Amino acid sequence: MAEPSMPEKHPFLLTAIEVEVAFETSLDKGLTTRQVANLQSTHPPNELDVGGSVPWYRLFAKQLFNAMILVLLSAMGLSFGIKDYIEGGVLVAVICLNVGIGFWQEFRAEKRMDALRAISSPSAMVLRDGNTKVIPNPEVVPGDIVLLKMGDTVPADMRIIEAMNLACEEGQLTGESIPVEKQTTNEITVPGTAQPAESEQDIGIGDRINMAYATTVVTKGRGKGIVVATGMQTEVGKIAASTSKKQRQPGRSMNVTKYGMRAPVVGGAKRIYDTVGKFLGLTVGTPLQRKLSKLAYILFFCALGLALVVFGVNKFDMTNQVIIYATSLGIAIIPESLVAVLTITMVVAVTVMRKGNVVVRDLSALEALGGVTNICSDKTGTLTEGAMIVRQAWVPGKHVYTVRDSHNPNNPNKGRVTYSSVSQVPETDAKRDYDSERTAAAVKFDVPDEKLPVIFEEMVEPEVQNGVELTDALRAFLLSSALCNLATVRYDADEERWQTIGEPTEIALQVFAYRFSCGKKSLEAQGWKQVAEFPFDSSIKRMSVIYDAPDSATGSIIEPNSSIVFVKGSVERVLNLCEYMGTGDEQVVVTEEVKEQVLKQMQHLASQGQRVLAIAYKPYGERYHPHQATSPEEEAAVRANVESGLTLLGLAGIYDPPRRETKGAISEASQAGIKIHMLTGDHPETAKAIAKEVGIIPKNLGVLPDHVARSIVQKATDFDKMTDAEIDALPELPLVIARCAPDTKTRMIEALRRRGAFMAMTGDGVNDAPSLSRADVGIAMGSGSDVAKSAAKIVLTDDKFNSIVSAIREGRRMFDNIQKFVLHLLTSNVGEVILLVAGLGFTDSSGTSVFPISPLQVIWINMATSSFPAFGLGREPAAQDVMRKPPHDKKRGVFTKQVVVDMMVYGIMMGICTMVTFCVIVYGAYGGELGHGCNEGYNPSCDAVFKARAATFAELTWLILISAWEFKSLRRSMFHLNPESTGRFDFFKDIYANQFLFWSVIIGVLSVFPVVYIPYLNKDFFKHMGITWEWALAVGMVFVFVGGIELWKFIKRRFHLLEDRPVNRGSWGQGGSASDEESSRVRRTMTMSSFKTWASFGRKDSTERSGQPEMVCPQAIAQQQQIV
């Protein structure tokens, strides 16, 4: 039997019969056993290859073949080559420490990711040989007939052939926050037009509503479909494949036909460069990693150059003494502890972040966070709660009820309901004249409300009342919302939180009713009895129920001995069935004019990003007695009779609310020079409304220049049609792109990269995975898909957007601290090199250069003395202005002009001070006696050299230790580090604030004495001896050094030298005004210590059991008292 192949047209464009023929299956019997066997032999299992954990040996190799480690390995080999086993052994310990720490941390991070990966074995119900059977998902093949029901995970991409109220949650694939209603026909039109779709390019996967996609979940109804793609050929599989697909860099092609005869030479040379650069760490990794790799090789070649200088000075007499001196210079110029300090600093930061529910899979990502300039974020579940809530309810008679300050969609006791009267239905489709509204202040501020034309007023609110009166009309609206509803809302006393079950929109309506104690459970407890239900039908877009009211029920909609029909559904469909609108004295006949007013109100709510439903009822006129229909036609006729002659009770505007911390986080990011882009699969109006609410775009686009306002919000179809050149020509890249496909997101990432941006991509869905893998920093949500988590470098297990900004704050804190300890370590290296190079002029009686400090002294200073203060600098808290500075320049990285200049200035000071000490002792006190053989060991002629070395060693140690306190701030005086301090002398308070650094310096200062005085250790290992009056000289030079640093800092402050560039927030600062009270409150809590605080806030919102709601339905009072 020939293997079925994919038809020329995509299955969503074909009829069910055409798909049946193309895949050689049977709608009634499914595939045969023989067909299944043939298909399983030619198709791989229906599984996604999302990658497993990284093998331990790759992690080890990554740490071992680090640039700095390779340089240290070279120095170690040279030490053993000249039989200097002590020095070689110390270098072995240094290498093991560096490699071990980095390997262990990344190994543990990978193990944590293994725990995060979902371990499941889903199954599918298929029709084969005319019988239904349940099989494991991997056994599903193209052509299988799969049966779906509520709660099932769709096993593969399917063309729907039967659908009964079938809806699927596709948020993780398309970004759509609302479950998608499915249909069986191929009558699909291009969005925004009446033109039928003719090809795949005409319509995105989110609008192919006769398809069900692998990994999506059936939220309601049942259905049947033909499998058209499995495994990596599904839409989710294509996305997973794109995350691991290698992208060749430009200019690497060797195609002669396309690029000419030079292509093989040029392309081949660049590929070789990439391969060698990757091995050496020069072309891969984060900017800091590449900078440190370059630094390591620069220092290595500098060490070789200095070795040649040593050999030249000694006329290339290659004795062991000369080689030892050259090795000493090489060791002095290499910061041996840099890799260890860097790794441990990152480990500490990772540990802190892990306690705040942030899992860092790759240490390099933490450093990269400090340089992020743009965040490309998904909307659903990231910026928003990922749950629906009733935002506004419109009741006929110009009554609007608005839910405010509700940060927990499932908790009816959170937030408040306010009332306002609509005196004018706002126009939503008029053309704004931004130029006429823009003023001189428009660059910075919104156009004042009083300057806006009347038609643009969102709502005329003469008065907003917090105390809402439960009117007859509102009570009727709540009854219909609660009873025409299948969702369950209840308070779980054991878990101390509200539990919800059902479809998101129905949950939202039920929670809204609970705010007034009119929930379905309490109403049914009072005696409301359901007698019939007509479930939601996607073809007519409504559902209805019939209830009998209890004898105690009151209200204008209650009629004695009459059942009541409650209806909800699409506004247009329900409105067409309504004859009246409103209740009691405010009831009016539905005319064309009334319909137009209702539709305008619907458009107003929709323009705010809300999904609008109509709520209606009708008195049945008698008690309804259900009976079994004998045919679908009879059932349809009964339903049509029940749902006719309705009375409209109002409109409910439902939306997915932003997380409460989102706006404050966006504001803080904006002040830090970071721009937020929303890339979502949701509808354009919904995306635009949420973007305005959280502050990604201004509520009034008139504050922006006209050319920017036109491009700031775009649909993906418009963005995808643009060429790269057209995108690059835009004055500003879009801040909001709606209806995004995976390719749209990756194009946005590449467009940002071409503009020199360093971006982070946040998301939780499968559709985010390509961008997560291609962005500089991929940040996935812990509740997201396995594909997304596998593609990301960082996983947020609490899914909170403010955790991203806190992580960036931590990344910046760490980056600033890296600058501080890199400056600290390299300054000592510069000082040591200057001292040793100058020491070449000190020759003994045999003409051999005498080193001012011995090789082991250099290693001791670099590892034991300066390492721990460097660790302390890595633990410094974030500066107060850390989120008011722009992202660091990724081209310069850690080595900014200020760091490089400071390193040279302080290093020269250090070298001069130590050289002066050595010269004063040798030439001032001992007449220039340099002895002989003093590099190999002690003899009586070496007293002057050994004492000078001891004093120089002690002084150099103290200079390096004290400089750590100075480097707590690169610009402020060590004696006044806190700019907000009012004390006259807070030196001790400031330096004791970081206790690890404080005690590292104190212990380091004291450790000099045993190293100088312990017998055998001093003369045989360190090649120095005990001193007396020389201590005073060493201490005096410390004060000279501190004075020099303070003078240089004063000059920088006085003349504004080497200052950071100001933050550029663009045409408009995202997140709103810095003076906004709520944003300010959120920003003040945006620290690493706030991770737990925010987590506790979330627990409070969900666990706090508030008192009873203020508004109470009269029918619910008795039941409520029983509950209490």
From TrEMBL:
Residues in Cation-transporting P-type ATPase N-terminal domain copies: 10-84
InterPro entries: ATPase_P-typ_cation-transptr_C (IPR006068), ATPase_P-typ_cation-transptr_N (IPR004014), ATPase_P-typ_cyto_dom_N (IPR023299), ATPase_P-typ_P_site (IPR018303), ATPase_P-typ_TM_dom_sf (IPR023298), ATPase_P-typ_transduc_dom_A_sf (IPR008250), ATPase_P-type_domA (IPR059000), HAD-like_sf (IPR036412)
GO biological process, one term: potassium ion transport
Keyword Plastid appears in the UniProt entry: no
Cofactor field: Mg(2+)
Extent of Polar residues compositional bias: 408-426
One cellular-component annotation, GO: plasma membrane
Principal location listed in the UniProt entry: membrane
Signal sequence annotation: none
SMART domains on file: Cation_ATPase_N
Membrane spanning residue stretches: 64-82, 88-107, 295-316, 322-352, 821-842, 854-874, 899-926, 996-1016, 1028-1048
Pfam families the record matches: Cation_ATPase, Cation_ATPase_C, Cation_ATPase_N, E1-E2_ATPase, Hydrolase_3
Keywords, ordered alphabetically: ATP-binding, Cell membrane, Ion transport, Magnesium, Membrane, Metal-binding, Nucleotide-binding, Potassium, Potassium transport, Sodium, Sodium transport, Translocase, Transmembrane, Transmembrane helix, Transport
Source organism, top-level taxon: Eukaryota
EC category: translocase
Topology relative to the membrane: Multi-pass membrane protein
Catalysed reactions, semicolon-separated: K(+)(in) + ATP + H2O = K(+)(out) + ADP + phosphate + H(+); Na(+)(in) + ATP + H2O = Na(+)(out) + ADP + phosphate + H(+)
Family in the record: Belongs to the cation transport ATPase (P-type) (TC 3.A.3) family. Type IID subfamily.
Protein name according to UniProt: P-type Na(+) transporter
Species the sequence originates in: Emericellopsis atlantica
